[in-house]
Write a structure and sequence with these properties.
67% helix, elongated, 3 strands, mainly alpha, 2 domains, 194 residues, 3-stranded antiparallel β-sheet
């Protein structure tokens, strides 16, 4: 009896057997549950995950009391390593979408909407000008959308930080006094070893 075994990433092992009657039969083997192998590691992750969630809840309570710009600055200071990629991606998406709007010729209906919102007439005339290229129009619209861009960047950063903390992929930065302790322990530990 010949056997052919293949690995299927979604289901597990898929085994095809040729029976003596030369009919194909398909056997699905369930993938092994690897979460029960190292219980010590998983309990350690559960503790650090609960610490991360507690930290995030206090951090979020502090954020609610601040203005939009203050939130932006605080998030940039404490979670810069998450905020910079999020802001870069969202800014690129904003600029690309405004470029597509400008390049496809939907500027005039957009300018009419901007006039309804009270944009100054000189800006509206500049956007409608024939001399302006699509990139220049995109940059002007990008600058006009700054408050919305900041809000989207903050919301995206908050979502990314929550996601990464929940998964245990990042750890919150400890307070200054605890950080000094950690650095002093590492320095004193290195000086003792030859």
């Amino acid at each position: 009896m010949a056997q052919a075994i293949r690995l299927c990433p979604l289901v597990g092992l898929v085994s095809r057997r040729v029976t003596p009657n030369t009919k194909w039969s398909l056997t699905l083997i369930r993938p092994r549950n690897f979460s029960t192998i190292n219980n010590s590691k998983s309990s350690k992750n559960d503790v650090s995950q609960s610490e991360n969630i507690r930290y995030w809840e206090t951090f979020e309570a502090e954020l609610r009391q601040l203005t939009l710009i203050q939130r932006y600055k605080k998030m940039a200071k404490e979670f810069w390593y998450v905020g910079i990629p999020v802001v870069g991606v969202t800014s690129a998406l904003w600029l690309a979408s405004f470029y597509l709007i400008a390049a496809s010729g939907y500027v005039k209906p957009l300018v009419a909407k901007l006039r309804d919102y009270g944009v100054h007439e000189t800006i509206a005339k500049t956007l409608e000008s024939e001399k302006m290229g699509p990139l220049a129009i995109a940059v002007i619209m990008y600058k006009l959308a700054s408050p919305a861009r900041y809000a989207v960047s903050i919301a995206g950063t908050v979502k990314a930080i929550k996601f990464l903390l929940k998964r245990g992929l990042i750890k919150p930065v400890p307070p200054k006094d605890k950080l000094k302790e950690i650095v002093l322990k590492k320095v004193s530990g290195k000086s003792k070893t030859p």
